[in-house]
Amino acid sequence: MGSGSIRRSAGALFRGVLSASGAKTGTFTDVPTTFCASTASTDPTSSTASAASAATGSAGRAARNGFPLRTVAALAASGLLAAPLLAGTAHADPKAPAPPTKMSQIGGDRLGTPGVQVAQTPGAPKLPGPDALTARSWIVSDARSGKVLAAKNPHWRLAPASTLKMLFADTVLPKFPKDQKHTVKPADLAGMGAGSSLVGIKENLSYTVHDLWLGVFLRSGNDAVHTLSAMNGGTAATVTQMQRHAKELNANDTHVVTPDGYDAPGQVSSAYDLSLFARSGLQNADFREYCSTASAQFPGDKGKGGKRATFGIQNTNRLLSGDYDMKPYPGIAGVKNGSTTNAGSTFTGVAQRGDRKLLVTVMNPQKKEHNEAYREAAKLLDWGFAAADKAEPVGRLVGPKSEDDGTGAVSAKGKGKGAHESTQAALNSSSGAGGAWTAVGIGGGVLALLGVVAFAVHRRRPLPELLRGRQSRK
Fold this sequence. Notes:
By secondary structure, the protein is of the alpha+beta class. The strands form three sheets. Strands 1, 2, 3, 8, 9, 10 and 11 form a seven-stranded antiparallel sheet that branches. The protein has a three-stranded antiparallel sheet with strand order 7-6-12. It is built from 15 helices and twelve strands. It has helices spanning 10-18, 48-64, 69-86, 165-172, 209-219, 222-231, 235-248, 271-281, 285-291, 318-321, 372-387, 415-428, 432-442, 447-451, 464-471; strands spanning 116-118, 135-142, 147-152, 181-183, 206-208, 293-302, 308-314, 332-340, 344-353, 356-365, 395-396, 458-459. Helix content is 34%, strand content 15%. The chain starts with 9 loop residues before the first helix and ends with a helix. The relative contact order is 0.17.
């Protein structure tokens, strides 16, 4: 998340408050939150009165949902800050840019054609219409086979916001052991953009690599990204490595300028490329762990005697952690969300029902409602699960360049086929990394409500024995 990002933390964070008796260190109230006035609406009809009305409406919904008065009051206060940023933006901008007439055809010819691409077949459910799916670009695909079930402008190069952190993680995460410690220097935090989302890293304090990745995935912390980049040889070196890795993944729509996704001239990606990053990252067990973590404790300041305090952080992926106006999506297992001034809201998610695992990416919904990117992603997932066995694919997610020819069809030499087989082996394995990935999605909806009550690291990795253990805790 970058300039103009809004840390929409109302519902999930307030549920964290309910699980503690009063605000103190270790509750979710300690999570740093960033509001940036640069996104304030310029609509002349916006006013303080309309902001108050919007805040009252949000508070009313919270009260009807059973929140106590102190939480409703906090929600209203948050709404008074957020409502002016949302006022007057409920409808699509008539001056919104049109997609290019010619885009990349990696993954298939139809994926380079502007507009919605779907092969509607007899018996297949109808895809939701343009009023329900307002994003400038989206794609829904089978995570195992790579088949693209439907898409809209999937190769349109747009600002990615913090979804670019998936590429950052896929590039840098394998380089450092989880228990390695790093003492943060002032230079490590230099160069972050104004209004950056932060997890709350402090200079001259030590953090484990595990802590830092939790900060990246749960709070989209640009301070965590810059710290890891410093460990990796610096921001410039990390950007170069990310760009090289994007090319290796056949993600040719992507141009990296900053490692954290902060708005920068020329920094673009696409719904197709973001899906490639997620699919590649999900083959790494640590990546799956972090992106599926609903809540965790994060190190704070040193207290008396040098003992570190901790505070609770919760994942800002609302299909994973829920919100006051949204329940967690059944079977959700990650991946990453983002929001900036240029990008609008962006989201890539993965979910599982039975043996079916679907990836969805949504970029910049034109309907500027609260949590709209998640709502549209959920609609695409619902359609995808219902249509997966009936709809004809309109393209595919290609494999890495070293294994795949990068075209829409499997090469005559079987190069593309080999890429699919290697990817599927990782995603289908019943043991090791693949087994952990399979386990991620099976009971993803269960731990969301539990995760806001107990202040430990709560991951959506519900192996049967873990589920029994979590359900027995009071």
